[in-house]
Amino acid sequence: MKVMKFGGSSVADVASIARVVDIVRDNVSREGLCVVVSAMKGVTDEIIDLAKAACLKDEAYKERLHNLKKRHLSVFEAVCEDPAEYRDFVENQCGEIHSVCDGVYALGELSPKVLDRLMAFGELCSARILTLACRGAGLAARFEDSRDYIVTDNRFGRARVDFARTDAALNELNFSGAPVLVFPGLIARCTDGRVTTLGRDGSDYTAAIIGAAIGAEAVEIWTNVNGVMTANPEHVADARSIPQMSYEEAMELSHFGARVIHPPTMHPLTARNIPIIVRNTFNPSFVGTRIGSETAGRGGILTGISAIPRVSFLRLEGPGMVGVRGVAGRLFSALAAEDVNLIMISQGSSEHSICFAVVPDDEDKSVDVISREFAVEMSHQIVLPPAVERNKCAIAVVGDNMRSRPGIAGRLFSCLGDADVNILAIAQGSSERNISMVIDAADETRALVAIHSAFF
Ligand code: ASP
Ligand code: MG
């Protein structure tokens, strides 16, 4: 049995939903089918945004909720002839999020707990819509509430799954009559019954959790592009889709910006060796990208190139760092304590400096944290105030086939040299699966095109 997950763009409007229903129909098997669905395109963002507005005493949230309701009602109407089947549901859901938002407005407070309850609206509606649309097309479809199966802790906004309980619950799924079971993505429940969410883009994770629990033959992630591409087609005209790659390559690529698939998603599936197939709802005959235990193969060296278009690059340096134990520990612990995520790290063997990249939003905070942590050393000038370089871009080349193969870094850096791209920093771990570089953001396209034509 398969699990098929459809993203927000796949259910953005009535026409797209009709395509999804066709794809579902083509894939029902005798054993049944699990379908996981995201909120309709833009809905999660809109909910978060209007809740923030309510929190800031902006009455516009009322009008925005009204529009959200109108949008959903019009789609319900289009896919289902009998209003009795959805009216109460929509009224109840809308009534509930409206009163929650009124509370947020009155109190001027918006906790992650409340936000999770609000966000659930998007997936609950889209899953009901798809269920009705499938039924309208004669498919035996049933809505299944993910919250009745997926059990998490109470870290609202990014809850952790209790796999023992979740797997046990999912093993009780009933497929008799070979129906299509439609699950809302993203949402779950903690042990005291409140709604939790699995983090932004959490619907992929929902699909993986279900796929792993039922031992699916594959989990298909249906999106709006032709699978994972060798490079961002907005920068590289001859970028092409990658037919096949390993889990590790997919993680390296998606950690580094090619966000077709959310990396933590893969974890329940890799352990059970269940393939993930990224496919295009708007080009369903295209095979897409298969992510599994095998590498891209085909004798190519690189599997893909990815980029984070905007990073800030920070450097801590000084004579007081050479041969001193604990400097890196202090630096990174202090940053971690303030919830700063490090995108890339590099230290040369002189130990005279440590450099790292963060998202631009974390730049000020990082400088603050470091200045506090190393205040004593800085007052003695044995560690200098952190140097910041803005408007940088981090590029990573990824491929299992780079391992134990001499000459690849050479080719990579000469092609960048020929293209007149200056490299600020480089990092390669001993997995040899990823070489990351920081360059000027203005050089991004030039660098991607140069690497792509040198290696593909
Ligand atoms: N709708 C949720 C989000 O946008 C979950 C998902 O689409 O995967 O984050
Ligand atoms: Mg989404």
Task: Walk me through the structure.
- Helix content is 39%, strand content 21%.
- With 456 residues, it is of the alpha/beta class.
- It folds into 2 domains: 2-224, Acetylglutamate kinase-like (Carbamate kinase, 3-Layer(aba) Sandwich); 304-455, VC0802-like (2-Layer Sandwich), CATH 3.30.2130.
- The strands form 3 sheets. It has an 8-stranded mixed beta sheet with strand order 3-5-2-1-8-10-11-9, sandwiched between helices. Strands 13-14-12-15-17-16 form a 6-stranded antiparallel beta sheet.
- It is globular and about 75 Å long.
- Magnesium ion binds at residues 7-8, 38, 201.
Notable traits:
456 residues; alpha/beta; Carbamate kinase; VC0802-like; 6-stranded antiparallel sheet; 17 strands; globular; binds aspartic acid; binds magnesium ion
Give the strand tally.
17
Low-pLDDT runs:
none
| Ligand set | aspartic acid, magnesium ion
CATH topology of the largest domain: Carbamate kinase
Strand content: 15-25%
- Can you count the helices? 14
Please state the structural category: alpha/beta
Name the CATH homologous superfamily of the largest domain.
Acetylglutamate kinase-like
| Main beta sheet | 8 strands, mixed
| Largest sheet strand order | 3-5-2-1-8-10-11-9
